[in-house]
Amino acid sequence: MLKAVNIKKQLIKARSRILKGGDILSWVQTVFNELDLDRNRIKNGLESSNESFNNNLDINKVNPQAVFHINQIKKICVDYRLRFLTTGLFKGDYPEQAVTEIRNLERRHHIQLKGFKIMARSRLFKLKETDDPLLFVPLGNDYYYLIYQWGNDLHPLRKLKFWPAKNVRNLGAFVLLISFISTIITHSIFFGKQSSLIYGLVLFLFYLKGFIGGILFFGISSGKNFSEYCWQSPYNKIS
What we know:
There is one protein chain. This protein is of the alpha+beta class and 239 residues long. It has helices at 7-19, 24-48, 70-80, 96-109, 158-161, 168-191, 197-222, 227-230; strands at residues 67-69, 83-86, 117-120, 134-140, 143-149. It folds into 2 domains: 33-149, no CATH class; 166-223, no CATH class. The protein has 8 helices and 5 strands. Helix 2 crosses helix 4 (96-109) and helix 6 crosses helix 7. The longest helix has 26 residues, at 197-222.
């Protein structure tokens, strides 16, 4: 009568044939040493990546859903007020899974990846926090390959929140809108029954001037800039 096959014992036999009587503890130590060397090399590469570098990935082994053009990356950065900078400027922590994904990608494509970039909120390039970073490597011709994403998703209203900071046109429209709304809400308080179109226009211009002055003062004093200009800026003051 045939005996059932114990898969674990078969695995042990297969390993023994490869080791040919060698010390299994030494073999395991070698395996872990190789893993540690790879992981340390990858982490050092992430922490020091500041140069531009193109990675030649095998087109037959890439995930087509992970390839993005710089213009697509720019649009998301501008819409949600994010930065797209080299990992050498990143102050957050890298999860072990991100390092594993890099190592797996390197083994599949038989290369050592370089030139890593991060898409994340500007504060992650100044403070240690864990929010929604995306890790990329450049492919050349302004194309990037998305390796890994970790952290929390962005708030659904973040795009609306930073819509005025997207560019000059949006800010101008926002100032006109809040000036108009403020005029509608308060014109009867200031003028009562004497309210007229002329009075309303004067009040609107008063609010408009005040909001523009306040925004200019805040923007200049704090070093703020529009998202379409600062999405690749490495400077903390322009944020």
